[in-house]
Design goal:
The chain has 267 residues and is an alpha/beta fold. The chain is 36% helix and 23% strand. The strands form 3 sheets. Strands 2-1-3-12-4-13 form a 6-stranded mixed sheet.
Length: 267
């Protein structure tokens, strides 16, 4: 009986190794790679390369999250093998706060952040005391405030990403800042005069960044969206194949044709 149990345990261990990130597909074995992502555009882009990776022996499983604050935690805890939803400053902030060591396996695209409104069509229409929605996570809030500064609405103490409305030194219109989870900003647009929204959530909310935004970051924004992994998986073969597939001409063409400049390839 003990021998049988030992064989069962050995079989289960082998099965887990077979599906884990880092398994070799050299003997025709299929490697399962679970990648966490927000729905738009990240999951959409990942689905473009599923068949290409399957031909390389990698079974790509796209795990969609509606709350992006959970995706890095899922990666740390081993629920997924990689993720694709964030820019490097956000990853750096997560590592600094959590003490973890997630790393970038490669950059894919930029999503310029935009300013949106359901009540005005120009920033010149803003009035005294109007409400401004901004993301409440550290890096995206600072990024949003820097965009508002670039449009001449406020002045900040520094050009650092690590800023909140408390760091505003000039606010001539006495704008009221409403700090919300980034995924809520498009859904609550009618409750603010303007909101600064990440492109992925603008797209999910049915907004067209180029047609509906009042203002946008410049196309050379430094916030490159990356594939992130645990440090020990940085050179993993399946991850390397994923990044190569995402940095292909096929994906570049898909991004350019599908998002009309709201998502910009960096490769």
């Amino acid at each position: 009986m003990k021998r049988k149990l030992g064989l069962v345990a050995l079989f289960l261990s082998a099965a887990l190794a077979f599906t884990a990130c880092g398994s070799s597909g050299g003997n025709g074995e299929e490697v399962v790679l679970k990648v966490g992502a927000t729905a738009v555009p990240h999951a959409e882009i990942l689905n473009v390369v599923k068949d290409d990776l399957a031909a390389e022996g990698v079974n790509l499983e796209v795990v969609e999250f509606s709350d992006y604050s959970l995706i890095n935690k899922a990666l740390v805890e081993g629920e997924i093998d990689a993720n694709f939803f964030q820019h490097k400053p956000y990853l750096d902030e997560f590592n600094a706060e959590s003490g973890e060591n997630l790393v970038s396996a490669g950059g894919i695209h930029i999503e310029p952040m935009g300013i949106y409104s359901s009540s005005i069509s120009s920033l010149d229409e803003l009035k005294e005391g109007d409400k401004v929605g901004v993301p409440n996570d550290a890096t995206n809030e600072g990024r949003a405030l820097l965009l508002l500064q670039s449009e001449g609405l406020i002045t900040l103490a520094t050009d650092s990403l690590d800023q909140t409305p408390e760091d505003i030194t000039e606010n001539s219109l006495n704008l009221e800042f409403v700090e919300l989870a980034a995924e809520q900003l498009a859904r609550t647009l009618s409750e603010t005069t303007i909101s600064v929204i990440n492109t992925n959530y603008a797209l999910e909310g049915g907004l067209s960044p180029l047609e509906d935004s009042i203002a946008m970051e410049a196309g050379d924004s430094p916030y490159v969206n990356i594939v992130a992994v645990r440090a020990e998986d940085a050179d993993n073969e399946a991850v390397t194949k994923l990044v190569e597939a995402l940095q292909s001409d096929k994906v570049r063409d898909y991004i350019n044709e599908s998002y009309n400049g709201a998502v910009v390839p960096v490769f």
